[in-house]
């Protein structure tokens, strides 16, 4: 009897969930949701949070060597923004019933994914420009549609993140613009950075649609609004006129616009490189994780102090009551 009632309840809940999704309404933490929807969100949001936190490293590498005080303060602000994005996203994931500790452990033990893009080195100052322009540009293309993700806390976090990303993208463009209009050596440095970051930026959108196991279901649930290839197309279309404005060459020599289909025909992405990076064998994977682990260990005293302070406040309130 009880199990039949439970089954009926579950059918009714599923119908209500489906109706909310069909009606473009938001799913909130208090709402019933299918277990697979919850797990998919935890997967995507926590990966996204880890990407922001690991993503601080390639740029933090240049804070002490920024070419002027102004550049240094802008870069510090950007890296701080990324820490903030990680925090909003971890908080959004926590509303789904996973703890911050569980997510952090998965990252530092090497069980969690984070974006492939952060496993590349930043040997020159122009890399700060290329990251801002290309990496944050790709992030904006991918993340603006996530502001309409069906899960409320994720969509709301993304609104604020996207506002900050657009500042990041502009500061990157501006760094490259200045270099590409500077001395021949500066221009070469800008081109070299763009040559190194262009293809990995295209990989940020994930595998091609026919090799993307999660896309169809995530789109049906309106977490993702566009497929990986659709967003990659949009990004390339956005970059082409900007390459021209910068006076830099697009590293994809085969790139052309097909009037008939209205699509960009691109050169072949090196999917072998992508899978190597995902398997932990990219140029900087080991270094990124090692640094994250060290930072976690170094911060142990802060977590302990915060927990002790919270306990003290709780005790004080209890005794006062
Ligand atoms: N790197 O079925 P698919 C930022 C994985 S932060 C690593 O297409 P999905 C920024 C994928 O997870 C940028 N892994 O998956 C920060 C899946 O593996 P699992 C981060 C990747 O989820 C600081 C498998 O491949 N942005 O912008 O439908 C400074 C199959 O893929 C990648 C986000 O996280 C990759 N590039 O689509 C500056 C955005 N691509 O989990 C900038 C939110 C795919 O099954 N996330 N994989 O083991 C998304 O939009 C989607 O999760 C993705 C992948 C488009 C990334």
Output the helix-strand order: HHHHHHHHHHEEHHH
CATH topology-level fold name: Ferritin
Contiguous low-pLDDT stretches (5 residues minimum) are none
Question: Using only CA atoms, what is the Rg?
Answer: 22 Å
Major beta sheet, strand line-up: 1-2
Q: Tell me the number of helical segments per DSSP (H or I, 4 or more residues long).
A: 13
- Find the count of extended strands (DSSP E, 2+ residues): 2
Measured by DSSP, the beta-strand proportion falls in: under 5%
CATH superfamily: Ferritin, core subunit, four-helix bundle
Helix- and strand-based class? mainly alpha
Bound molecules: benzoyl coenzyme A
Query: What's the CATH class, please?
Result: Mainly Alpha
Please bin the fraction of helical residues: 55-70%
N-end to C-end Cα span: 46 Å
Domain module tally: 1
* Biggest sheet descriptor: 2 strands, antiparallel
Could you report the average pLDDT, rounded to the nearest whole number?
A: 96
C-alpha geometry: globular
Under the CATH scheme, the architecture is Up-down Bundle
Protein name: Phenylacetate-CoA oxygenase
GO molecular function: phenylacetyl-CoA 1,2-epoxidase activity
Pfam family, one: PaaA_PaaC
InterPro entries: Aromatic_CoA_ox/epox, Ferritin-like, Ferritin-like_SF, PaaA, PaaA_PaaC
Verbal overview:
The protein has one domain (33-320): Ferritin, core subunit, four-helix bundle (Ferritin, Up-down Bundle), CATH 1.20.1260. The protein is built from 13 helices and two strands, in the order ααααααααααββααα. It has helices at 2-22, 35-54, 56-60, 69-94, 100-108, 126-143, 152-180, 184-203, 215-220, 228-246, 271-278, 285-298, 300-320; strands at residues 256-258, 263-265. Strands 1-2 form a two-stranded antiparallel sheet. A hairpin with a 4-residue loop joins strand 1 and strand 2. The longest helix has 29 residues, at 152-180. Benzoyl coenzyme A binds at residues 43-44, 47-48, 51-52, 55, 82, 113, 115-116, 135-136, 139, 142-143, 203-207, 212-215, 218, 224, 228, 278. Benzoyl coenzyme A (BYC) binds next to helix 2, helix 6 and helix 9. InterPro entries: Aromatic_CoA_ox/epox, Ferritin-like, Ferritin-like_SF, PaaA, PaaA_PaaC. This is Phenylacetate-CoA oxygenase. One of its GO terms (biological process) is phenylacetate catabolic process.
């Amino acid at each position: 009897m009880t199990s039949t009632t439970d089954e009926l309840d579950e059918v009714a809940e599923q119908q209500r969930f489906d109706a909310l999704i069909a009606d473009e309404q938001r799913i909130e933490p208090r709402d019933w949701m299918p277990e697979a929807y919850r797990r998919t969100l935890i997967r995507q949001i926590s990966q996204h949070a880890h990407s922001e936190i690991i993503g601080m490293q390639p740029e933090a590498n240049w804070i002490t060597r920024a070419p002027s005080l102004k550049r240094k303060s802008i870069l510090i602000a950007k890296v701080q923004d990324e820490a903030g994005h990680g925090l909003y996203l971890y908080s959004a994931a926590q509303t789904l019933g996973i703890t911050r500790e569980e997510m952090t452990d998965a990252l530092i033990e090497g069980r969690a994914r984070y974006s492939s893009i952060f496993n590349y080195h930043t040997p020159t100052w122009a890399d700060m420009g290329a990251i801002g322009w290309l990496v944050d540009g790709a992030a904006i293309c991918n993340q603006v549609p996530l502001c309409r993700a069906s899960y409320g806390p994720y969509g709301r976090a993304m609104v604020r993140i996207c506002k900050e990303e657009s500042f990041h993208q502009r500061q990157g463009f501006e760094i490259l613009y200045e270099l590409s209009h500077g001395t021949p050596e500066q221009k070469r440095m800008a081109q070299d950075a763009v040559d190194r970051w262009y293809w990995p930026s295209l990989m940020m959108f994930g595998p091609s649609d026919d090799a993307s196991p999660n896309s169809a279901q995530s789109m049906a649930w309106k977490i993702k609004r566009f497929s990986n290839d659709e967003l990659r197309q949009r990004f390339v279309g956005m970059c082409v006129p900007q390459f021209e404005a910068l006076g830099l060459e697009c590293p994809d020599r085969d790139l052309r616009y097909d009037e008939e289909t209205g699509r960009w025909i691109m050169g072949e992405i090196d999917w072998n490189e992508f899978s190597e990076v995902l398997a932990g064998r990219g140029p900087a994977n080991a270094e990124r994780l090692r640094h994250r682990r060290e930072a976690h260990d170094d911060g142990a005293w802060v977590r302990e102090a915060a927990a002790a302070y919270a306990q003290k406040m709780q005790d004080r309130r209890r005794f006062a009551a």
